[in-house]
Design brief:
The chain is α+β, with helices and mostly antiparallel strands and 289 residues long. Helix content is 30%, strand content 22%. The protein has a domain of 196 residues: Thymidylate synthase/dCMP hydroxymethylase domain (Thymidylate Synthase, Chain A, 2-Layer Sandwich).
Amino acid sequence: MESYLQLLQDIKAYGDRHDDRTGVGTTSIFGYQWRHSMDDGFPLLTTKKVPLRWVAEELRWFLSGSTNEKDLAARGVDLWAEWATKEQCAKFGREEGELGPVYGALWRRFPIGNCEEDTAPLHMFDSSDQIKNLIYGIEQSPNSRRLIVSGWHPHYQHRVELPPCHTMWQVKCHNEKELSLHLYARSIDAFLGLPFNIASYALLLKLIATVTSMKARDLIISFGDLHIYNNHKEQCNVQIDREPRVLPEVYIDARLNGGGLNSLLSWTWNDIKLEGYKPHPKIDAEVAV
């Protein structure tokens, strides 16, 4: 995918050196935008292997509303393990594995009420199921410009070790036939995180389009701070030197067509079919925690 390699090169060419929360340091640019037409294939990187099953299982975990890393680990996925240790969770008075108000909680139970205790669990608040509201909005008001899901809560973001990086996304219905998704990401690790984010939101776009009887059209991502960690520079160079291959296709089981919210919340990995994926080998790198 040439557009992703160009993104890496733009960070290297135009980015500024920054200290950061992790202590690793980054080169970053601010206010970048990337887009992809789904007609060109499913945007799963070919210049290194990205495990789509892991992407899909994490997305299912988000959509389920779970905030416990053990639920994701039970599916054989350890993407969140570094933030779910006993030591990390103890900082917020939570048991090992319980991550607090991360994506699942904010997508499915966004707090809209008040509670006297700042550390109170989210179930004590009145809340909004943003995924339910989104599908209802697409079905009932497809021309709406309010088809938005927010992953950022300005008050409760300090109650987690890693507040949501992909903070808000909006969908657009084109003539009630096609669907596009625009994500705003406040902070993205271009080498490790972004390939997963691209695949995750591309899959989410295809799923929402499928369950609302539409066709996936464009995926757009606007970035706040888009960065390469100092300990990922060599890995980025390896990837830039590789020749991109033909993008694969992803097909969603026909049983989900037009199924609305129930289908969006009940799909499994067995409903996803990946064809024609022939990537270059995996490139190892350490995550900055």
